[in-house]
Amino acid sequence: MLKVERISKTFGKGSINEKLAIDDLNLTVNKGDFIAIIGSNGAGKSTLLNCISGVYGIDSGSIMLGDINLTKLPEYKRSKFIGRVFQDPLRGTAFDMTIEENLAIASTKNKSIGLQRGLNKKERELFREKLALLDMGLENRMKQKSKLLSGGQRQALTLFMAVVSEPKLLLLDEHIAALDPGAAKKVLALTDEFSKTPDLCTLMITHNMKAALAHGNRTILMKDGKIVMDLYGEERKKMTVEKLIAQFDIDNDRMLL
């Protein structure tokens, strides 16, 4: 589904602050893969997601999503195929728009629309039905503005918005890091559920190594802009946090926050 081939990205090229963030990196993601990405600060995790989504252009290499060449596509065109959730719950929704208005925008981002009513009765009922699956009571608050939601509710809504248009790829950049433990657990459970969508592949950055081994079907470790570990199958099932720290000399003070 996703093939990242020999990509590199350097910031501040030619200056005293030059930084090689992604170094000749290769990654193949199959349909249905849910990959947890771990690594210390500065390992290149977020830069990788930003290169895939088009926030940053790459210096070399190629990025293919199925038969779509993303390499030189601008970010807004890639967004038709990619759903994304950020660490900050405030970034995923328009705070002064209602829940149903946010969902209406998200659901039509990969469709051609004309001069018509934003939401019809059938679509509103469909949103209500799907919001009920979040088990947060949002289906009864569709006319309320998203700024009135808690951080956990807003992030759950953002996650739903990211998948409602049926993207091919879901990118999650530490999307539970800013939430309290209860909300984080709920959003992570929703992530597991949404990742089962047919033909979807998911990349999730996390600093929680326990979560990285417990969720999804693959765990990769990045260091100095490279992928230095790719765990799946039996090897992943037998891996523990303690073994990870010992085997890869991970800075566990930062990784286990």
User: What's the level 1 CATH class?
Assistant: Alpha Beta
Q: CATH homologous superfamily name? A: P-loop containing nucleotide triphosphate hydrolases
Low-confidence stretches: none
Rg for CA atoms: 19 Å
What best-fitting shape do the alpha-carbon axes yield? globular
Total helical segments: 10
Description:
The chain has 257 residues and is an alpha/beta fold. It is built from 10 helices and 10 strands. The protein has a single domain (2-90, 150-255), classed as 3-Layer(aba) Sandwich (Rossmann fold), CATH 3.40.50.300. The mean pLDDT is 87. The longest helix is centred in the middle third of the chain and has 14 residues, at 151-164. It is globular, with a radius of gyration of 19 Å. The two termini are 32 Å apart. The strands form 2 sheets. The chain has a 6-stranded mixed beta sheet with strand order 6-7-8-3-9-10, sandwiched between helices. A 4-stranded antiparallel beta sheet has the order 2-1-4-5, covered by helices on one side.
